[in-house]
Amino acid sequence: MREIERRVAAHMLGQFDQFYNQFRDVPRQAKHAFERCHFSESVRLSNLRLRLYSESIRKESERIARLYPAVKKQEARWDDVERHFRASVESVYHADLALAYLHSIRRKIYISEWLVADYASRPLNPLTQRQMEACYCRIDLGRQAINVAMIESILDLEKFQTPFQDITRDAERIVARLERNLKLKHHDMDHPVAMEMFRAGFYRNRGAYLVGRFSYMRGKYRPFIIALLHNEPRDKSRDQSGIYVDAVINSATYAHNMFSSTLANFHVTNDYYHELCLFLKSIMPMRPIGLHYSTIGYNHLGKLAVMREMEQEIKDNKAVFSISPGARGTVAIGFSTPGCSYHAKVIRNVPTDNYKWDKFYGVNSVLEKYTRVHEINRSDSMLDSIIYYKLRLPKSWFDEELRTELLAFVHHSIEQDAHTLLFRYLIVQRRLRPLPVYLETATDRQARTIMINLGYCIKNNAAANIFNKDLDARNYGVTAYSKVYLYDYDAIETLGDVKVRSNSDRFDGEEDIPDWYFEDGFVFLPEELPSGLCLSDRNLRRIFAREHHALLTTDYWDAMQRKLASGEVPRVSVYPDSERVSGHLAA
């Protein structure tokens, strides 16, 4: 092996170590921000961590091309670089992450295709006993009851520098809630055989979480998630400052919602990411493993896992991609397979004739909006997106109708040969049922729940400084747990830039043109929100207006814009008030 390839490999190893150390340090900083009630710092860290990988890849690929022009000119020489690099990392826990980093550099330098084979996984080495103890805390229950001392020891696992307001009080509340949720006093019910906690703090926005599970016979598990908040000394709404337990979650449904990719990633103070994802999968079995990686900040590994899951579903079920059900998109063409957990989409060269806006700024402008949503706190209201660039897929994966439509309306972004389609980009999201499709078969009770949850989705959009100017219900989707999310982003705007105005002070017959008509930018009239949903059922629009009357007023939107302008991190409720034990309801 020539010396230059050795130097490039050594250089890349040093740069990866620098990236990985910074990446691992962010959760420690997030813990410190929680202990100090620095919530804006927590949001900043979320944005920082999302960009660390891509920015490091960009900088290092440019540096390699500049320092080693001979290697840049001959891609075949990179094979020797990879062999030396692989030999240096093969024995470390994070070897897969290091190799993913190396392949990303290669793709950036040589503008090559994204290939699953490049990121082939390797068998994980079994953890030593010491490593296992660093991952899990297990309390065998046997016949003994869950008591306050047990819970206090769990609350102390993360060793906060800031004390609890009253750790014994909180432990007593948790025990009481567990007795209710797990029916521990009903002797005819199944009782857990063990209580297992992952040794880590999970940090996001204002909150921290301790995540565990109850283990039952026959390999069954139930979530045990403790939600923590930190009361600022200057907060007059509570009597004490310090950390306190706000909620206890034992529901798989609520756990799925809390760990949704519609929220900012969790910062987790434990580096055993494979074991953590398997642990999370055990208590949230409906959530694909690829999304578990993304939820804890390992988006690059999640990207690989998602593609493997899609490929496996096609092979196992002999399925093909077809156009998604529901109304055809004016900007995007969406497709999936019947059993796939994901939904893919590409942007049309030009929108369809019923496009609502005056001007279409092109495919790249839409991709930028999807990237923007990926890099912000999605506030439990917007799906995360994975964007693959230069992705080649077999033609056999696509039915004839879909292939015809893609080649007719997305030909600027797709190339074909005899056997494959090469996508310049492909957007992949968690699959949801479009809201109007869901309402076609919903009961009255289900429909009412969805309209209420749609309002919460719009409120959470606002808390993330996002306004969807196309409020058409077709842009929203419904999960199996009745949560509603925004998933089309071609019409999003920064809420702070929206002109909130009203015609409510005008009287019937007034003919003067309102002053706002001549303003630049997008003008939003809150009182027109129900009609903007484009739902033909008037009763559903009335339910929305009654349950979320504040959204129909300028006061609500003006107040949210002021909060965002001042740098405040608005509260976002990610679990129901019914699960709270603190007696403090969400703002």
The rounded distance between the terminal residues' Cα atoms is 63 Å
Based on Cα principal axes, name the global outline.
globular
Kindly state the number of beta strands: 20
- Overall structural class, as computed from helix and strand content, comes to alpha+beta
The percentage of residues in β strands lies in: 15-25%
Instruction: Output the radius of gyration.
Output: 26 Å
Poorly predicted residue ranges: none
Largest sheet: 7 strands, antiparallel
Attribute tags:
587 residues, six-stranded antiparallel β-sheet, globular, alpha+beta, single chain, 19 helices, 42% helix
Please provide a written account of the structure.
By secondary structure, the protein is α+β, with helices and mostly antiparallel strands. 42% of the residues lie in helices and 17% in strands. The protein is built from 19 helices and 20 strands. It has helices at residues 3-35, 39-67, 69-73, 78-89, 95-110, 129-135, 148-155, 167-181, 252-258, 273-283, 289-295, 299-317, 363-374, 400-409, 435-441, 444-463, 529-532, 538-547, 554-565, and strands spanning 136-140, 194-198, 202-204, 207-215, 221-231, 242-249, 267-268, 322-323, 332-336, 342-347, 386-394, 414-416, 420-430, 433-434, 466-468, 476-478, 484-486, 492-494, 499-500, 523-524. Strands 1, 2, 3, 4, 5, 6 and 7 form a 7-stranded antiparallel beta sheet that branches. Strands 8, 9, 10, 11, 12 and 13 form a 6-stranded antiparallel beta sheet that branches. A hairpin with a 5-residue loop joins strand 4 (207-215) and strand 5. Helix 1 packs across helix 4 and helix 4 runs antiparallel to helix 5. The radius of gyration is 26 Å and the shape is globular. The N and C termini lie far apart (63 Å).
